[in-house]
Write a structure and sequence with these properties.
The protein is of the alpha/beta class. It has a single domain, classed as 3-Layer(aba) Sandwich (Rossmann fold). Helices cover 33% and strands 25% of the residues. The strands form two sheets. Strands 3-2-1-4-5-9-8 form a seven-stranded mixed sheet, sandwiched between helices. The chain has a two-stranded antiparallel sheet with strand order 6-7. The longest helix has 14 residues. It is globular.
Length: 247
């Protein structure tokens, strides 16, 4: 069964305000793993109401397909893409991404808006997905993707390790040979909280991420982890990327 959260509360709790050390590490990770891409189709699976994870990718892919199970999350994403007044402001994340990409500390508003325009141009489809469905893209897919990213998604919709591996097997099956797979996940989790509501999570480590994706045919070539303090149900995040080995 899919996990449905309140996307407004999620944005307020996780993404509003100054970026913390974990968010800065994430943006540096994305800048690093996407910098050598030369076009191709990109799938963001289960992206929620966010666009932070595609900021660096947008500069180096041809088309972006954003997905999530929750229609409210998709509505918020569309609001940002369409420039609706009051849509969530991702400028702080974009500045962080551009700093990581360029090494330049002072990023102007013009550079931020230029990247936002590029992101909007590259997003060609926003649609629902369902990780538990036989066809997780619900007949909206573009065939095999050159890049697939899933960020804080699959490990946060089940507490069953076997089910988590099964969902990853299905998702990596959508990746073209030699395609890039990118994932970030909460580690050593007993769940996660939005407000007072608790959601399930499978208890995994960065080492588990490496092993599972290696077993699924991903040659992992970039690994990072960030320990976190004062998080009630998990103690860090793991980040990996790798290339699908040609059979």
């Amino acid at each position: 069964m899919a996990t449905i959260m309140n996307p407004h509360a999620y944005l307020r709790q996780i993404y509003r305000g100054r970026l913390d050390s974990a968010s800065l590490s994430l943006m540096a990770f994305y800048a690093r793993v996407y910098k050598l891409l030369k076009g191709g189709d990109y799938l963001e699976f289960g992206g929620g109401p966010t666009i932070y994870s595609i900021i660096s990718a947008a500069a180096n892919v041809s088309r972006i397909h954003l997905t999530d199970y929750d229609r409210r999350s998709l509505h918020l994403t569309r609001s940002w893409v369409n420039g609706v007044p009051g849509a969530f402001d991702w400028s702080a994340y974009t500045r962080s991404a551009l700093r990581a990409e360029t090494g330049i500390r002072s990023i102007s508003g013009k550079l931020v808006e230029a990247r936002h325009g590029l992101i909007r141009e590259k997003i060609k489809r926003i649609s629902r997905c369902d990780a538990f469905a036989k066809d997780p893209l619900l007949q909206q897919g573009w065939g095999k993707y050159d890049v697939i990213a899933t960020n804080f998604c699959l490990e946060g919709i089940t507490a069953d390790a076997k089910e988590w591996r099964r969902l990853n097997n299905i998702l990596t099956g959508l990746l073209a040979p030699s395609g890039l797979f990118v994932t970030t996940a909460i580690c050593n989790a007993r769940g996660w909280l939005i407000g007072r509501k608790r959601y399930p999570a499978v208890r995994i480590t960065t080492a588990d991420l490496i092993k599972v994706y290696h077993d699924l045919g991903i040659d992992v070539n970039d690994v990072a982890e960030v320990p976190l303090q004062n998080r009630p149900l998990y103690d860090g995040i793991g980040m990996i990327s790798g290339v699908k080995v040609i059979p």
